């Protein structure tokens, strides 16, 4: 002990110098002493409990967000179709109703029913237009010009007229599988709404359709519905239904397991209060930011619940250990013991989730950001207000100060025995682990990321049934578009360009997987067929350049809506649209690649084929999930390895910890 000399009244005295208590100095800088929620638990805890009421008020205003557009980003084939149709209809809400007639569409009862159903759907609030076989027009030759007449008139229902209508519709590529099924038993009705369908109306839209169509359902007619408003509502309802049973079942299951571990209703109540506080904080934050609860938020609830309860149990275990060690302040001492390790665990978890934000998929980016943000919120609320709650609800020791230690020797013996068994059989365990690892690693090549939008919907939902029905009956909904840029306005009317489109279309139609091909040349061929009064072999490009120019002028004058799907307004660019049913991503990419190779070989001089962006999206759509996961896994592994090495000051321990966790992931 250091001594110092003091001179007093002429006498020099020696006494021990006061040495600062190093323990107290280090403790004064500890997290427990700096945390205001541990220093003033009761007042801050009461304030936090009172905050539950405004948080509950804010949480009650939250909205659900189905985000169908982000879901479509995971299924590129469906997204291409959706974006193409949305551009044609000027971003308006559209409902597609498929009707199946017992006697077929091309029968007197079929056409009359199709007309009546179309009229009934037109009476819906906000409906501005209806397109169906009985509510569409076709051009007919009138001298040296064209007149527009009804495609299917209900006042001509004799056998000859119906047979003529059936032959025309089922041979016309712009009607077959677009307005009527290839077997003639079903037809489509498109209802366009002038104003967007509100969220409140979406919830009752399906019932509204049921009421309108019920008179025909009782007569044996069958209907399927499709529409983005319907899909959004069904996704929201499915999420609500899942949450209603998922949260109670998850909470009850965890509570039952914890009763045997904690054996204290005070601590169980603490777990409930802390979990509710964290949940309300997150929902209130989204409400303040005017952000609805996204789909990724619902998918992450089990993940967040696991993180939250694991952290809380970790805190309770540390407090119990401090209490058994007869610490003066079990909560402060226990939290101080595990704060660094808990912080490291939360940091690595947040880094892992945040790395998903590097994905090209908006949906995966959102999952990464929401997951990382949720982990940070759990950490802040647990070591913030949660410490006040823990101080308030943690039971006080009745025999503090006793020198007798109450260790759980039985548990220690179990743990020691387990460790001894592991050490005694470590070679066999490592060999088995290596063998399983090799098998698992070999199986990675069969990992599939072929995601379909309908997989997010239950099998009994109207939208999923409609998608599957549409895919089966109407030739599929996957659309791929190739752009042919001639470089000059009106360039697509050049004979060589039109011949190229016609030949490319014929070659594509020979593929059995392709159900339909659409092009501007096809539209001109249809005009020529009408001009020549449907004579055999007339469905082709007109041989006369004069007639070809006349057709082009007529199409420009009429400005049909579907024209924008086949060419641009300057007639410089034309699009070849390929339609296929739902098929595996790899097979779809191979099929499109074959068509692209043919298109590049036959491309006319001066023209440019633009397909790279679309093809790139197709190739990447089903693979980008795995690629993003791979990149995020590698970056996360490197970051965690660096952090562990710096914190533990041992590269060996860091690499061992990372290796063990990688084995668990692969298994």
Overall domain count: 3
Class of the largest domain in CATH?
Mainly Alpha
Shape category: elongated
Proper CATH architecture of the largest domain: Up-down Bundle
User: How far do the termini sit from each other?
Assistant: 59 Å
Structural class, from secondary structure content?
A: alpha+beta
Amount of beta strand: 5-15%
Q: pLDDT under 50 segments (min length 5)?
A: 1-28, 72-78, 398-411
- Largest sheet, spatial ordering of strands: 4-7-3-8
Describe the structure concisely.
The protein has 667 residues and is α+β, with helices and mostly antiparallel strands. The chain has helices at 22-28, 31-34, 36-39, 41-50, 52-59, 68-72, 76-88, 108-122, 159-171, 199-217, 228-262, 265-288, 295-299, 301-324, 330-354, 362-382, 385-393, 409-424, 426-443, 462-473, 495-509, 520-531, 545-558, 563-566, 585-601, 612-621, 624-648, 651-666, and strands at 3-8, 11-16, 94-100, 127-131, 137-142, 145-150, 186-193, 222-226, 478-485, 516-518, 573-580, 608-610. Mean pLDDT is 77; it is low at 1-28, 72-78 and 398-411.
Model description:
The chain folds into three domains: 26-80 and 248-396, Multidrug efflux transporter AcrB transmembrane fold; 81-233, no CATH class; 475-621, no CATH class. It is 60% helix and 11% strand. The chain contains 28 helices and twelve strands. The protein has a four-stranded antiparallel sheet with strand order 4-7-3-8. It has a four-stranded antiparallel sheet with strand order 10-11-9-12. The longest helix is centred in the middle third of the chain and has 35 residues, at 228-262. It is elongated. It starts with a strand and ends with a helix. Residues 1-28, 72-78 and 398-411 have low confidence and may be disordered.
